Amino acid sequence: MPDNIELREVEPVPSQQVDPWLYRLVIGFLGAAMLIAIALIGALSIMGKTGSDLLIAVPAAVVAGLVGMLVPSPVSQR
After folding, report:
1. Distance (Å, rounded) from C-alpha 11 to C-alpha 43?
2. Residues 6 or more apart from 78 whose CB is under 8 A from it?
3. Looking at residue 13, what is its pLDDT?
4. d(Cα 25, Cα 32) in Å, to the nearest integer?
5. What pLDDT is attached to residue 78?
6. In this structure, is residue 6 part of a structural domain?
7. 48: left (phi over 0), alpha (psi -120 to 50) or beta
8. CA 26, 29, 35 angle in degrees (round to 5)?
9. pLDDT tens digits, one per residue of 23-68
10. Number of structural domains, the chain?
11. Which of 25, 37, 49, 55 could cross-link with 59 by S-S, CB 3.0 to 4.6 Å?
């Protein structure tokens, strides 16, 4: 084995770096979708109409997306 081996720290590739503005944009869109869904459900209930199953499933998926984005990563040092 050669003695002139130099060890250096590995830099993350660009695809592994997280852009904080992209993260904020995704959270903002998911939050806006949740608020719109709540407003639609509220408007339908005020009018006395029942919503479709899709109107219940979409906010549930949005909440799951928000939870997935906001829960800290197990490998993150934050």
Report:
1. 51
2. 72
3. 62
4. 10
5. 52
6. no
7. left
8. 140
9. 888 889 988 988 998 898 888 889 988 777 877 888 888 888 888 8
10. 1
11. 37
Q: What is the DSSP string of 1-49?
A: --S-----PPPPPGGGSPPHHHHHHHHHHHHHHHHHHHHHHHHHHHTTP
Q: Per-residue confidence at 15, pLDDT binned at 50, 70, 90?
A: low
59 assigned to some structural domain = yes
Task: Reply yes or no on whether the pLDDT at 11 is more than 80.
Answer: no
pLDDT given at position 55? 79
Which residues constitute the domain of residue 61? Answer: 20-69
- Please state the pTM of the whole predicted model: 0.62
Which tokens belong to 42? 């509220």
Asked if residue 37 belongs to a domain, the reply is yes
Tokens for 72, please give them: 């800290």
